[in-house]
Backbone:
């Protein structure tokens, strides 16, 4: 079994080599992203392995099918970069629905603590032997209200962490979990209430038509003055221009972003020797109350192991049994996990 592996980074190879050799899969690693210009590299392979910033458009899918590539294995949970409607009936799409929810949830809390306790500023000062405390005053998390949008595995781990700090939780999910709301410290509410009453808002939901630009000019107007925005989910959940304007108007007290809606040509790459042409991102990074990390919330040893193992097991299950429980299917209500594994 030969798989073309796109958008390869050095940290990908050890785990995929380990599980690939164990299950008899040969990976050909390409550093380039998968898109219309690079899809020809997949010729002669049984499948392709793609990541969050690869572009799997209708044109890419058609070319993969023409080259007899039967399967697209996503080594991530999100699939908004895949034209799933066009993929249906043409190519099988597999994903990793969960790897380490702790990795993303813990990174979210790390960003929050770094921001509100000014740890990043203190670190830079102390490197210059400046031990002044001026401008480093933060605030307690204990007793604050956090709004959590998305109560899947990652969202629920983040809620557990927040409860450990003594925070109150307002949660929103299109499909609420039956056992989460205790009527007191954790309550499900509508988005209007969540925006209006939360001191901190954190996003842990997939990018869909319903969640696109959930943070926008109108929703920010409903928020508390000084609200802290956290996004470690998908960049386009936050309208970056609206967020920037909210920061400039002092409506947003701080923002912590591990994702950005126009990140595909920037994140995961060293751009330090180049002029950043994205003015919105440049202005966000320049703000003293904004922290941006480069889509690294998933990046722990445990998560990398889980991603590689699940991806390889997905491929083995598909090629040996022609069925994979982690297959995505447009017929199954908008590209959710396939219910029977035999939709086409």
Residues:
């Amino acid at each position: 079994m030969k798989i073309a592996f796109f958008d390869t980074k050095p940290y990908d190879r050890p785990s995929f080599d380990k599980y690939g050799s164990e299950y008899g899969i040969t990976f050909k690693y390409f550093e380039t992203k998968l898109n219309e210009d690079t899809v020809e590299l997949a010729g002669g392979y049984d499948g392709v392995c793609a990541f969050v910033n690869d572009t799997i458009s209708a044109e890419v899918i058609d070319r993969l099918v023409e080259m007899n590539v039967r399967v697209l294995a996503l080594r991530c949970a999100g699939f908004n970069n895949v034209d799933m409607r066009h993929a249906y009936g043409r190519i099988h799409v597999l994903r990793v629905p969960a790897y380490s929810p702790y990795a993303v949830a813990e990174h979210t809390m790390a960003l929050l603590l770094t921001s509100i306790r000014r740890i990043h500023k203190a670190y830079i000062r102390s490197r210059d032997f400046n031990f002044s405390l001026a401008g480093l005053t933060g605030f307690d998390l204990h007793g604050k209200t956090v709004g959590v949008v998305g109560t899947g595995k990652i969202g629920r781990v983040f809620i557990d962490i927040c409860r450990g700090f003594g925070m109150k939780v307002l949660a929103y999910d299109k499909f609420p979990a039956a056992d989460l709301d205790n009527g007191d410290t954790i309550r499900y509410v509508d988005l209007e209430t969540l925006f209006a009453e939360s001191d901190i808002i954190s996003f842990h939901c997939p990018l869909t038509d319903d969640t696109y630009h959930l943070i926008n000019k109108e929703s920010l107007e409903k928020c508390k003055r000084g609200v802290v925005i956290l996004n470690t989910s998908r960049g386009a959940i936050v309208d970056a221009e609206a967020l920037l304007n909210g920061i400039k108007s002092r409506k947003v007290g701080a923002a912590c972003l591990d994702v950005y809606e126009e990140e595909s040509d920037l994140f995961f790459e060293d751009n330090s020797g180049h002029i950043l042409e994205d003015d919105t991102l440049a202005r966000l990074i320049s703000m003293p109350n904004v922290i941006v990390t480069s889509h690294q919330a998933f990046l722990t040893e445990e998560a990398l192991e889980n991603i590689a193992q699940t991806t390889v097991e997905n491929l083995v299950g598909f090629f040996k049994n022609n069925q994979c429980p982690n297959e995505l299917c447009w017929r199954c209500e908008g590209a959710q996990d396939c219910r029977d594994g035999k939709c086409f």
Notes: The first helix runs from residue 13 to 23. The two ends are 21 Å apart (CA to CA).
